Amino acid sequence: MDEGGDESIEPSSSEQTDGATASSVSAQKRHKWTRLLLHASIMCGREFLYAVEIVLVTPIILQLGMPEKYYSLMWMFSPVLGILIGPIMGSHSDRCKSRFGRRRPYITALVIGALIGLTLLIFSKDIASSLGGENVESRRVWGVVVGVVGAQIMDFCLDQAETPLRAYTLDVCTLPDQQRAVAMQTFFIGLGGALGFIIDGIDWEKTAISKLFGSQIKVVYMFAVVTYILTTICNLCSIKETPWHKRSKPSSSKCIIPSQLPPEKSNGLENTSTYGTFFYQNFPIYVQ
């Protein structure tokens, strides 16, 4: 039992040989269910923001004066950015040498980006009033621009967070823990979506909270921000990543390609992949 309360499992000699991949994870540790619960909780905050996006983006953008015929085109930008930037981000994440690990810096950046996008969306009218001055048409244009940019930044960051979050789980968990963590993530996805729609559906106008924050939309905004920040902190502090430069270096004594091994020797290594990118590859595995 290690200091953090996780169980250490000694691998057999065959497991040591077959498991010495260049992207080795902390696979010798089994984590307590409480750690896995904290690790998976970020999905609750993420789905909360998705629920807010579904409910609020349409009325806010249309109220700002965007023509309805262009509304569907607005959602084109986030998927296009995902196609162009997503693989690059995944590849850089795989090789990230930050002392905080390979995945957590990207998770943090995407969470901050989503919150910035949500803030631009919710306060787009106020920002437009400041930028547009007394000119009504100028305020309308600024409002649409700020609102659309905010909505697309939020949507892009929420979508792209999926890859490093899944890769983080695969990097730090053994196979049994991966199965438990994914089950918990599924639970939190449902919980976050339900809470988001419930909070959106409550009439906050007649409550003291609405008087404090000024409007229904801003109350929902505060709930979303607090939920996402708290669940992100839980996730980032749940299981420590091993920095890339501190991982064990492969020996040059022997090099094998998983796909070239006979079935009885491969032990599943033919499925080895680089998580975080959109392609699978067989790469050399060095063994003693």
Account of the protein in words:
By secondary structure, the chain is mostly helical. The protein is built from 13 helices and four strands. α2 packs across α10. Helices cover 63% and strands 3% of the residues. It has helices at 13-18, 33-40, 42-63, 71-74, 77-94, 104-122, 124-132, 136-160, 162-172, 175-201, 208-213, 216-238, 263-266; strands at residues 7-8, 29-30, 255-256, 285-286. The chain folds into two domains: 31-244, Growth Hormone, Chain: A; 249-288, no CATH class. It starts with 6 loop residues before the first strand and ends with a strand.
Short key terms for the protein model shown above:
288 residues, Growth Hormone, Chain: A, two-stranded antiparallel ribbon, two-stranded antiparallel sheet, globular
Brief digest:
The chain has 288 residues and is an all-alpha fold. It has helices at 13-18, 33-40, 42-63, 71-74, 77-94, 104-122, 124-132, 136-160, 162-172, 175-201, 208-213, 216-238, 263-266; strands at 7-8, 29-30, 255-256, 285-286.
